[in-house]
Every structure is written in structure tokens, then in C-alpha cells.
Amino acid sequence: MSKLIFVTGNANKLKEVKAILSAGSTPIDIDSESLDSKYALFRRDLPFRYVSRILVDEVQGSTQEVAKAKCRRAAELLKGPCITEDTALCFEALGGLPGPYIKHFLEKLGHEGINNMLVGFESKKAWALCTFAYCAGPGEEPILFEGRTDGAIVPARGPAKFGWDPVFEPAGTGLTYAEMPAEQKNLLSHRYKALEKLRVYIQSL
Ligand SMILES: O=c1nc[nH]c2c1ncn2[C@H]1C[C@H](O)[C@@H](COP(=O)(O)OP(=O)(O)OP(=O)(O)O)O1
Ligand SMILES: [Mg+2]
Fold first, then answer.
1. Is 11 annotated as a binding residue?
2. For the whole model, what pTM was predicted?
3. Which of 41, 88, 193, 200 has its CA 20 to 30 A from that of 130?
4. Which atom of ligand 1 is the closest one to the Cα of 89?
């Protein structure tokens, strides 16, 4: 059976995916060296940033449509099975936006600007939505695995190591993602919840 490749241009995602899948009651063995080299190899030979840009710029739509389009395209380029992941950050006051477009808002506005987007709205509620997509190969319909964690947008607290981690506080924790130890985030995060579904599927293949 050919190797399943997780395609991403984001090293922080890769780190969390490895940590989550190799832990838990039914751990999935990951050859981290080969995963790393696939990741490096993929990025060197087929510049995913470029691919990702095209997909992000041209495929507009719901999180599910964006996620499927990216995975379909990655499977075509790899000519084999693969997994991709899309993360959305959705604001209740904005009807779920920015959603899959959070990356662009974060790049242009920063943490403070993300907070300012909600000035004048009473609700600071938000949810993080992770969508893994699995595609069996070129021309196959991707299957989606979603995980959602509810919380609120808050002024930045904690180290700014990964995206919007400092401005998202999961409900009931009193801590932002950035303030949590990795082990805590990785047991309640949007990514963890989606990976728990993907884990079951991968083990059934
Ligand atoms: O747990 C997270 N905690 C904080 N920030 C996060 C997280 N997960 C994704 N993020 C950020 C990265 C990017 O600014 C946006 C998602 O965009 P998204 O297209 O899914 O990621 P990406 O382009 O960095 O990597 P990829 O090559 O897998 O598409 O939210
Ligand atoms: Mg992307």
C-alpha cells in the first residue's frame, strides 16, 4: 500500500498532527523521519505554497468546498492518496466569517486587528473549525473529517508561536491556546477532534 502523505506548508500543523496521532488509546505509528522528508520533498519539488495560493485564491466558498478542492488538487499532483487540512476561525457576530479566510485577515491585521474586527459587537464568541480531507487518488471524491472547538476572541495572551493561538480562548479553560501547554491544547483542540475521526478512518483502511 502506498504511503499516506499529509500535505501542508505549515510546520506547526505538522507538529501537532504528529503529536496527536502518535498519542491516545489507539496510536497511529508515524515514521516521523519519512513524514518529514515527504514534507520537505513535497515542498521542494512541488512548491505547495504556490499550489496552496492558487487554491486559496481561486476556490472560494464554504470551508468544506475549500477543503475538498485543496485535497483533490494535492492528490492529482501527488498521483496518489493524501491528506490535507484546512483550519477556519469563525466569529459568531460575523455569521461565521472570516472562516476559511482567517489566514489573510491574520496576515493583514495581526492579533490586535482581529480583536478590532469585533469592536461594536456584543458577542466575542468564536469557534475554531478543523477540516481534514482524505483523497484516495486522482479523480476520487475527498472525504471530510471535521472538529470544532468553541470559545472567544480575546486580547492576545501567551507566546505568539502559532497563528491566532494568542487570541483564541476555548470556553471553560480561562487560557488562550497560546498559554496552554501543547499537551492541553492537543486534547481539546479543533485539530484533535478532527484527528480522532480521521484516526478511526485510517485504521479501517
Ligand atoms: O491551531 C491553530 N492555532 C492557531 N492558528 C492556526 C491553527 N491552525 C491553523 N492556524 C492558522 C494558520 C493560517 O494562518 C490559518 C489557516 O489557514 P490554512 O490554509 O488552513 O493553513 P496554512 O495555509 O498555514 O497551511 P496549509 O499549507 O496546510 O494550507 O490559521
Ligand atoms: Mg493554506
1. yes
2. 0.87
3. 41
4. 30
